[in-house]
Batch of 2 targets.
Target 1
Amino acid sequence: MEVLVLIDWISCLFVGFVGLISLIILVYRIFYMERDKFKDRFIGLVLLFIISIILMIISPNIIRIMLGWDGLGVISYLLVIYYQNYNSFNSGMVTVLINRLGDMGLLISIGIITLYGRWNI
Amino acid sequence: MEAPVYGSMILAAILLKLGGYGLTRILIVFLLRGLRYSYIIFSIRMIGGILARLVTLVQIDMKRLVAYSSVVHINFVICSMITFFKLGFIGCYLIMVAHGLCSSGLFYMVTLMYNRSMRRLLIMNKGIISFMSPMIIFWAYLCVRNFSFPLRLNFLGEIMMIMRVIMWDVKTLVLMIILGFFSRAYSLYLFSYVMHGGINIIFKFNRGTIIEYLVVFIHCYPLMMLILKVNI
């Protein structure tokens, strides 16, 4: 089994932007969550988020794009409901349902692209 | 609704799937008529699917929500089966096996919460994560199985059914998006409404005995493992 990786100037640009913005988040976290009790959980969630975004960007295969997109949806839901109150609960439901719309688009594009007999884009 | 849990589990897991098996057996009878009139059954099933999802979304009773979710998925199964093609047929079979395990496990877990709080309403069972925390990984797993999540059995079945239905008519594409969207909406509603919030009314603080974990794990294990060996 071989794992292919798609690297051209578009994917490199996007990976660079994701790295820059997540670096800014991780620096801002130091001041914002100074008195938080469990700091490791937030860092772990943000790192998983970055990993699933990069997995989505560099994949040439539509099934792996779907995998990265769904991991992104679940982890963004977990990040939105990190502090438990009703506002974050409602925002998390909105996040994950909007994510489902894109998910259905990917499912239908898998269905259409299989009629051509391949899964590579 | 007032049936004991074992009756509900046998109904969801065995009797409903026996109905699906009978549908696959009797399908050859409808072959000649179905090729001509399948679009009528198809459109009725599609509209029925959307209405059933909307009815599921407004339920306030947990057990009734789980029971309606098994009404919902049979709509899609009949849509794919009436197109008379092997791809849709295999998709129906996978969906029926996966949903039988999943809805039976969900009925059992709803009864576990009913044994703690003596109520089945969604608004009474809140904050289960506070005292039954090891059990919620199974609750999340079974709720996620209700819609199609990647690399699971429902996902494979749903992709095959979507492929077959799109081959049959491309104009059903918008309906597919609506169906998939609402099926995730009610599953997440069931998951997060129960887990989130503070505890309203709890009579017994019991984290769960070994036999309860065993029953739930036996429902989850085939769902994890069946995807590893799917030869079609």
Note: The two ends of chain B are 38 Å apart (CA to CA).
Target 2
Amino acid sequence: MFLRLLTLAASALDATSAFMERLLPFRDRLYRLALAQLRNTSDAEDAVQDTLIKAGKSAPIFRNESSEYTWVVRILINQCHDMQRSRERRQKREVSDSITGSAADTVADFRKRPEEYVELSDISKHLMNAVDELSTTHRPLILMRYFEQMSYEEIAQSLEIHLGTVKSRMNQAKTLLRAALERRGIGEDVL
Amino acid sequence: MKSKKTKPTKTPSKLKAKNDEAFEHLLVTQFEALRREIDAFIARSQKSRKVIGKELPFKTPKQGRNIPWKAGIAALFLIGVSTPLLLQLNKDREEAKIVRASERVQSPEKGSILQENPSVTESEGTSKTKKSVRAKARKKIRDSVTSKAVASKNQSAKKSLEASASKQDEQSGIKPRARSPFPEPAAAPKETPASEKAAEGSSQISPRSLDLKDATAKFKRRKNASEERVEMESLWKEFEKNPQVFFQNKKRSARLEQLLKEYDKGKTGRMKKFRVQKESRVDR
């Protein structure tokens, strides 16, 4: 019994390490995607690390229906979304603390270093802000399609949904994004 | 007012399709620009921080090297866990065997009851009795071990003594008895009827040497006999010189008579002579 458990654990460890080794070549691409979403180097590094760890842990669940990369991209996008939400919450707390005058002044936030933030053009900033406004169902579709240049089939495999669903959701996402961009005054001449 | 002639407007669907294409194009170009910007930023940060890889301290596991390590660690762990368990199990089994054997030896009747209804006896048996039985069993084992050790010690002492004796012989010039490499054949017993009977009668083997007490007693007896013989000889000489005077002392005559009875036993005819003299004196 004990021996069986031990062998199972060893095999799981082997599978995880093998899977993570296969993911390592995509690290730079994942980092780029994370940086585009979070626009902060340290946050992006954290996101990539957490994503790889999550992917490694859930390696036995991976069914080889899609490529490893498309599968990890989905995890990364969700991870970035979680981090953004937690960051927003933290910022809100800091603001409330500064209003009430509590200990926020004494605690230094090391993430506010200017060299860590990505310097983007105004159009790119607005574009990413508009993407951030999208819901969790639409955002991955836009990022996968236009940033990662994935095909509809690949997106369908990655998100484990039908191709038709991908297409319909993509249309919805585009409409929402267009509206968000219009509000920012981008692409008015085109639209 | 002249109404302005406007160009026929495009149908909404066509407009929409055109707009969609344009928006698609916009998205593609903008995201491409974004990618380029990010790549440039990464390149810049790489230059300043040298390598991104160092920023991500993610150690790559080397599969080929790890397997024997893992197997070795697993094997060591298993051995470490299983060996004490096995040892404990064996010990318990042995103890249980000893306890059972001792219980059978001590009380065969109880043993039968145990076989019939072991649950009852187990419940009845107190921890004290169990402990005492175990202690007795351990003591037995210890005694046997100590007796063996003593025997081996004695043997070694005997060997050392023999070795020292042979050395002394060599020093004094006596040749040591050459020992044949083969064991000496046992002397064939004489097949006499008496010995056969004795062998039949007593199955025990008689010891070669006497006990120390018996030997001293024998030695004393021999010594006394020789002394008495000397006394008898001196008394006989006195008797031969003058029997009439000798018989006057009754103690001496009685002593000579006793000694003659014991040692002479009519071999030399002294006893006969002594009796004749005695009778003639009585007749007078």
Note: The mean pLDDT of chain A is 80.
